[in-house]
Amino acid sequence: MSTLETELASELDVDPIELQRIRLNQETARIPWAELQRFFAQGYLIWVHDDLDLVEMALRFTLDDAAAIEAEMTRGTLSRVSDDQARGWFESQSSLWAVVVKPWILVQETRCTSGSTQTPAQG
Question: Which Pfam families does the record match to this protein (predicted)?
Fold first, then answer.
């Protein structure tokens, strides 16, 4: 977190970590797989399982919380995007939720929450 963000958090009487979480949430967007492919080719995409909160995992990366990141990798709920995942997203023309935590881009498929039949690109 920058010095300016820390000062702002202090002035607003807001927890600096909460301010960081808010910033990450605002920077999260749905992005078509076609726009993410080049980052996959460069090895910069990290897949976040649907059971995890994408913003919370991005915060863990921002805070360099190696223990939390390693724990999720061990559980299999966080990993580099695999060739099979990339192929599936390409074939289904999926859009994914994404947030940048340089140099990484964390991506997550979305679950259907409307009660209708779930499809790969639905959210």
Answer: DUF2288
- pLDDT at site 120: 39
- Characterize 14-33 residue by residue with b for buried, 16 or more Cβ atoms within 10 angstroms of its Cβ, and e for exposed: eeeeebbbeebeeebeebeb
Each residue's pLDDT tens digit, 64-73: 999 999 999 9
First to last CA, the chain: 31
Q: What is the DSSP string of 28-68?
A: -EEEEHHHHHHHHHTT-EEEE-TTS-HHHHHHHHHTT-HHH
Q: Is the pLDDT reported for residue 91 higher than 50? A: yes
List the chain domain ranges. 29-108
Classify the C-alpha dihedral 29-34-38-40 as positive or negative: positive
Tokens of 17: 């970590």
Tokens of 39: 């980052």
